[in-house]
Amino acid sequence: MNYSEYILSPNWQKLRAEAFKLANGKCEFCQSSKQLNGHHLQYRNFVDCTTEDVMCLCKSHHDQWHSKHSSSTIATRDEVLAFLANRQRSKQARKARPRSRKKTVDFIVVTDNHLRLGMSRKGGWNRTQLEAIGVNWPPPNGWKESMIGQQLPAKALRSFLKTKSP
Ligand SMILES: [Zn+2]
Ligand SMILES: [Zn+2]
User: Do 61 and 12 share a structural domain?
Assistant: First the structure.
């Protein structure tokens, strides 16, 4: 029997069905019951495979394993689960990193110079730009002094400068 014969054989179909039942019809990693695959932990010879050798994985986690391992890789259940968990952790870490970096550079301390840069040629500020940096309209006395030294989101400061009057 070769591999393609085996994959279509009643033997494998039956073994897979048993393995799925043992796993309660759920991916052994994420518990999803969508698109289940039977993954061979090892092939031995085709005839000797038992449910111990077959793991129930959803397509996405099965693909993740095989993106790094060939079908002849021999691994235990625990090794497959550990690999998938590791991958998930590093994926989450990658996602979290840019967010925290953004937070640290995204604040700017307002200086006297920023306020001057936002000033119109006539020497004033308009309502839109002041509201962008949280100053009420009409601006109270001393608003400039109270803005200087404050931390503002860089985005707010950018729109303060962008919306200035000519
Ligand atoms: Zn899964
Ligand atoms: Zn597989």
Answer: yes
The domain of 61 spans: 3-96
CA angle 78, 80, 84 (to 5 degrees): 115
Q: Are residues 38 and 119 in the same domain?
A: no
* Residue 39: inside a domain: yes
Classify residue 102: in a domain, yes or no.
Answer: no
Angle at which helices 77-105 and 59-68 cross, to 10° = 90
134 plus 82 within the same structural domain? no
Q: Is residue 101 part of a domain?
A: no
Taking ligand 1, which is a single-atom ion, which protein residues have CB atoms under 5 Å away?
Answer: 27, 29-30, 32, 58, 61
* CA distance linking residue 33 with residue 139, whole number of Å: 60
In this prediction, residues 13-37 reach a mean pLDDT of 94
Average pLDDT over residues 31-57: 85
pTM beyond 0.85, yes or no: no
Residue 57 and residue 91 share a domain: yes
Does pLDDT of 24 surpass 90?
yes
Task: Tell me the CA–centroid distance for residue 86 and ligand 2, in Å.
Answer: 18
How far does the centroid of ligand 1 lie from the alpha carbon of residue 15, in Å? 20
